[in-house]
Design a protein that fits this description.
The protein is α+β, with helices and mostly antiparallel strands. It has a domain at 37-107. Helices cover 21% and strands 33% of the residues. The protein has helices spanning 46-49, 53-67, 112-121, and strands at 27-33, 38-42, 73-85, 90-109. The longest helix has 15 residues, at 53-67. It starts with 26 loop residues before the first strand and ends in a 17-residue tail after the last helix.
């Protein structure tokens, strides 16, 4: 019986070659900003609080835009976060957001003239590496 059974170990390996390919796609849009500043007070639920402070603030911004006509972003955003001390942690009780609702309009592909104008306004899109001083000596 032992002679008829076979123990076979199979080892399969595969590798992939990493390669980088850069794909650049650009779109321009206009931003229409409302002249009316809005202020919205948001009281987060425990589910929203579970996502952390950034999640609570982002939800407050989303709700503020939804309640005030539905914009895309708030320009000159200001946030105030009120917290209270819970049994074991500090919890957010209220977030107040204010700003000017704005909407993106007139989406269009980037043409050569727009790229030249953009580079003229921002000639160096990549920040330069700064030398760091060690103990103020170098």
């Amino acid at each position: 019986m032992l002679g008829m059974s076979s123990c076979t170990t199979t080892k399969n390996t595969a590798t992939t070659q990493d390669f980088s390919s850069a794909t650049i796609s650009a779109t321009l849009a206009d931003l229409e900003v409302s002249p009316r500043k809005i202020t919205y007070v948001y009281h987060p639920t425990s589910d929203v609080r579970r996502g952390g402070e950034d999640n609570v603030i982002n939800t407050a911004i989303r709700e503020a835009l939804k309640q005030n006509g539905g914009g895309d972003i708030l320009v000159e955003l200001q946030t105030t976060v009120k917290k209270y001390r819970g049994l074991f942690t500090t919890k957010i009780s209220e977030v107040t957001v204010s700003g000017y609702p704005a909407t993106y309009t007139n989406f269009r592909p980037v043409d050569t003239e727009s790229l030249k104008e953009g580079y003229k306004n921002h000639p160096n899109p990549q920040p330069q590496a700064q030398k760091r001083r060690v103990f103020g000596l170098f």
